[in-house]
Each structure stands twice: as structure tokens, then as C-alpha cells.
# Entry
Amino acid sequence: MELYVRVYYILSGIAVFICGACLGSFINAAAMRTVAGKRWWGLERSACDSCGEILSVRDLVPIISYIALRGRCRVCGARIYPRHIAAEVVSGLLCAALFARWGASAAFCMSLIVLCFSLFNSLTDIESGFIYDAWALALGVAGLAVRFAGGWPAVLDGVLGAALGFGVISLIIIVSRGGMGWGDAILMCGIGGAVGWRYCAFSLYAGFVAGGIVVLPLMIAKRLKRKDAIPLGPFLAAGSAIILFAGNGLVFRFRELLGAYPGWPWGG
Ligand SMILES: [Zn+2]
# Structure
């Protein structure tokens, strides 16, 4: 590879990481405000979670401020919740990795939609045990809107994905009588609407495996009972994130079943 091409990729990767970290910072703040019943917009400035001191610009630089302050508030010295830096790092790294995977394309755009809304819904689910239906549905609506750029087959693919995601989780809810919540079904409806039915099927599988890997050992160790409420949204979101990278490889592996076509915008 020519040197200047390599420099271009490295610089754009760093730029995407920084933008992704800022995005993660915003999404985390929006999720916290949503759970607290506050507005996202307006004149209310970001403040310390403990003492309420209004934060200045130098305290709001994603990742760097947290490290510079050693995770403590400049005024009161209280610990800053690690969820701030965690959301920023996860979002920055995933954005950069998705850019490396898809380049500047419709697939990258769709991946970003899935990532942003999944992160938001995971954060509210972890904090409050609640997925906000409107924000889970917004994921599907935004995804379907982008699908119009791929024509009617792409839109139909999204509608089928939404139906598959909602249908499978609904079935589990009805059969298990409360193992999962309707928020999970609506989240998977939104993810399916964005990623299409093939990616949705793999996302469900990856999400269940991810959940099983974490939940089963806890159940075996008797740390969890069967009826304990575990937020499952983050596992479904993690499953869909994995498939944003591995989806095409899986479609090709199951080409006899799926016809080796991953669907728009994932390529053909
Ligand atoms: Zn403080």
C-alpha cells in the first residue's frame, strides 16, 4: 500500500474514533437524562452527578477529561461514574472498527444507526431495567428511512427483519411467561428493521449466545434465580454489533439456505 494511502486510513480512523467518542458521550448523557425524566435539550448544562457543579468545557472532553481528572470531580472530588468513559471508549472503538470494516458507505451509515440506538437502549436498560419503546422503535424507523436509498427490495427486507425480530422475542415471552420483556421485543423489532431479516436472524442467535455465556454461569453459581430480572437488551445489542462485522461471512456460510446474498446495504 502506498504510504499516503496508509496515512489517509490512519488519520481517518483516528478522526472517526474521536467523533465516535463524542457521540458516545452525548448518547450516555441523553440516556441518563431520559431515565431521570429530564429534557435533553434547552439551557440545562451538564453538571457533576454528585455536587451539581456546572461542568466547564475542559471537563467535558470525552475520555481525556476523565483521565486528566483521574475519575474524580474537580470541585467535590466525588468519583465520576465509570459509565461515562466506558460509553465513550466503546462507542469510539466500535465506530472506528465499523469504519475499517465498511469504509465510507451506506453500510457504515446503517451500522452507525444500529450502534447509536443500541447503545442508548442498552444504557437505559442497564440503569433502569427499562427499554423506552419510542427509542427502540426510532431505531427501526431510522433504519427503514435509510433503506429507501436501496429501493423497495431493501425496504421489504427491513420490514421482514422487523417482523422476525418482534416475532421471535414475542414467541419467547408467550412461551416462557415473562423470561423476557416487551421492551426486548420492540428493541429487536427496531434492530431487524435496520439490519434486514438475514442479519436479524444471526443477531438473535448471537444475542442469545452472548446472554447465555454470561447468565448461565451465574445461574449455575446460584448468584441468579430463574425469575431474577436481568436486562437482556444489552445482550441483544451486543449480538447485533457482532453481526455488523461477521454477518456477511455467516450469510456466505449458509448460502444454500440464504442464497449468498446478505441484502442491501451489506453488499451482494
Ligand atoms: Zn462534583
Observations:
- The chain is about 70% helix and 0% strand.
